[in-house]
Amino acid sequence: MNEAQPKILYIEDNPDNQRLVQRVLGARGYEVVLAGDGTEGLTIARELTPQLVLVDLNIPGLDGFEVTTRLSSLSHLQQVPIVALTADNSPDARERALVAGCDGFLLKPIDPRLLARQIGEYIAGHREQIASPTAEAALLRSYNQRLVERLEQQVRELSSANAELEELDRLKSQFLATLSHELRTPLTSLIGYLELFERGILGTLNEAQHEALKVMHRNSETLALQLNNLLYFQELRSRSIVPQAIQPTELLRPLLATYHQVAQTAGLHFEAAGTQTAPLAVDRSAFEQLVRVLLDNAFKFTPRGGRVRMIIRDEPSRLIMRVEDSGVGIAPEHQQKIFLPFYRVEAPHASLHPGAGLGLAIAKHIAEVHRGQLTVQSIVGRGSVFSVVLPRTGSHGS
Ligand code: ADP
């Protein structure tokens, strides 16, 4: 874009007209910036101060009248002429355009010999006026009515589209829940038999068979974990949270003992620190699940030799729980998205860590139904800190 060249913003969906205006005005030293519809025109106009805006009144979506009204309310365009371009030659077409905020009115088809001169006059300050104030008031009234009618129609369409989406979402959830249940039952029996084989109860296995069974078992466990997450995610939406007063450090003791073992096998340094806390009203299993998700992730995304710490801090009005790791970290552009269901960061190490991208969505939901918060701070290559803040008085249902 040449900064010095005068710019015309042209909002038009017809490619023939776009080309014609670009050619005619381009030859006179203007740069014509094109927008294919009203919304795009408004987006461009927010960034650009052209010498003039040319608007086709008959465009899809937001029509030319509405775009003009919106454009003329933007403070940086107050002195910029907006000129309507239309094929409508009905008696009051010009007045209707002026009432919507246009400063000028040109009829289609465009006359290439006149266009540059007409544009030049508007840029030089020429403005068209409505001759009769009574006609203007009546036109304004009917324009306002039309705007409200369009708005009402849009709201109605959006509400019905939203209701349809909600229904589709409900059907999808139902399908996922049924599917996960259907898959889990045979999987449980599969894992049961694999365990019997591994323990030699169903006969002796040679070394190769034993190895193969171990792989099958490990993969089945991964599958079961994913299904559990999926089920938990589905149930969480409809499930009611039952808060009861618990002592968080007491509740976490057995869970943390398991993680100490896992850390040893994974070659990680794991430490849990926290003072004895006062009781807190939370849903037991949801709280446990929240801690599991954060610790599982910290372990998953921290290479051997790294460090994972869980710190619980008790305050009179809230409980703060931090899970810190010295792992791979999360780039800033992913830090909010990782809380969305099914979102996973595409990274070279991702395939090593199976997951459906549901853990953090579940964890955030749990924090929020307890009127708390879950946030992240992270630096790529240095590690991540996930912080949960749960208020003492505001637990769900109280
Ligand atoms: P998943 O079950 O697939 O791990 P989550 O919702 O728990 O799904 O996490 C989403 C994504 O966020 C992960 O795939 C990973 O890329 C990123 N992530 C979560 N926790 C950490 C962490 N502690 N360190 C680095 N990346 C993480």
SSE inventory with pairings:
Blueprint: E1 7-11, H1 15-27, E2 31-35, H2 38-47, E3 52-56, H3 64-71, E4 82-86, H4 93-100, E5 104-107, H5 112-124, H6 133-198, H7 207-238, E6 244-246, H8 248-266, E7 269-274, E8 280-282, H9 284-300, E9 307-314, E10 318-325, H10 359-369, E11 373-379, E12 383-391
Parallel strand pairs: 1-2, 1-3, 3-4, 4-5, 7-9
Antiparallel strand pairs: 6-8, 9-10, 10-12, 11-12
Helix pairs in contact: 1-5, 2-3, 4-6, 6-7, 7-10, 8-9, 9-10
Helix content estimate: 40-55%
Quote the average pLDDT.
90
Radius of gyration of CA atoms, rounded to a whole number: 32 Å
Query: Order of strands in the sheet with the most strands?
Result: 2-1-3-4-5
Beta-strand percent range: 15-25%
Overall 3D form: elongated
Which compounds are bound in this model? Answer: adenosine-5'-diphosphate
By DSSP, the count of extended strands is 12
| Cα end-to-end separation | 60 Å
Structural class: alpha/beta
- The quaternary state of the protein chains shown equals single chain
Query: What's the number of helices?
Result: 10
Given as residue ranges, the uncertain stretches (5+ residues, pLDDT < 50) are 394-398
Largest sheet: 5 strands, parallel
Secondary-structure element series: EHEHEHEHEHHHEHEEHEEHEE
What does this entry show, briefly?
By secondary structure, this protein is an alpha/beta fold.
What does this structure look like?
There is one protein chain. This protein is of the alpha/beta class. The protein has helices spanning 15-27, 38-47, 64-71, 93-100, 112-124, 133-198, 207-238, 248-266, 284-300, 359-369, and strands at residues 7-11, 31-35, 52-56, 82-86, 104-107, 244-246, 269-274, 280-282, 307-314, 318-325, 373-379, 383-391. The strands form three sheets. It has a five-stranded parallel sheet, sandwiched between helices. Strands 7-9-10-12-11 form a five-stranded mixed sheet. Helix 4 crosses helix 6, helix 6 runs antiparallel to helix 7 and helix 8 packs parallel to helix 9 (284-300). Residues 394-398 have low confidence and may be disordered. Adenosine-5'-diphosphate binds at residues 293, 297-298, 301, 325, 327-330, 338, 343-345, 355-361, 384.
